Amino acid sequence: xxxxxxxxxxxxxxxxxxxxxxxxxxxxxxxxxxxxxxxxxxxxxxxxxxxxxxxxxxxxxxxxxxxxxxxxxxxxxxxxxxxxxxxxxxxxxxxxxxxxxxxxxxxxxxxxxxxxxxxxxxxxxxxxxxxxxxxxxxxxxxxxxxxxxxxxxxxxxxxxxxxxxxxxxxxxxxxxxxxxxxxxxxxxxxxxxxxxxxxxxxxxxxxxxxxxxxxxxxxxxxxxxxxxxxxxxxxxxxxxxxxxxxxxxxxxxxxxxxxxxxxxxxxxxxxxxxxxxxxxxxxxxxxxxxxxxxxxxxxxxxxxxxxxxxxxxxxxxxxxxxxxxxxxxxxxxxxxxxxxxxxxxxxxxxxxxxxxxxxxxxxxxxxxxxxxxxxxxxxxxx
Length: 382
Fold this sequence. Notes:
Low-confidence stretches: 374-382
Strand content: 15-25%
């Protein structure tokens, strides 16, 4: 059995060939009196041009009056979501050689794409749809598809995507509660807030940011600072999604942090809370640290006592004091050793963990002196 889509293509192709044939016949008639190689070539070119133009016009005609939506870099991702949800409809306007038109209804808004052999154009919003209305519908659809805690990610191959953020573990602490209470007062008064949190890797910056964002509620989007260099128009993605809060990890891991300050200004206009972490604040210039760029700047020297108490319990105060100054990765390692080796052996080995940390800090200081502009931070201390 031949399906309906194939029959439509055949019917459309036959009509197109008849139209092209009539156009080419006119040229052939004029050349009939003096046939030449050049004349024959002109007939062939005419035929190819008519085939191409007709298929292009059919697509252009379909989208007359439609609004082209600028949602870079998430245009392809929205198409993927619609496809996965089986929302795409193949329209009657189809080109056998060149392109086809697919549409989807997203929360009452009809959007469409022109699908070519190696690329797609769109999305377009149907006539009469406001740009803001279409983008709001698409943004809502993305959040419903992915989840309220998501991260912007650029795979090695393929388009930019939004995916569920797996890093959702966080621990309450006095520092986090105090910060949340302060920020809440400003946000409820109608002010956008931006917060820079700095400190050595492992002092709990990520846990602090996630706790505050989760406590604030709403939609949150996380991305690494390198994303601003690897993804085309990340600010455009944030403007489309309009999350309640944006988390940016490791600002000092890009070569010139100041280059994304303008992007941060755009982010502030699309969210009510921006939280950014940095390991080495000395890599930022004074312009980065002024109010207006960051309204609050907080230093974390050690893991919050409340967080440590949740991670480790049942140990003498002297042992807790030894653990208190270690980054969280080292505390996690101590917990594993304690589970396997027992309390006594694991406590003895705390000294080895301290020695390793000091060695890494010394190597880090040496790297800073040898290459002041090097943004790399040893992963072992993270």
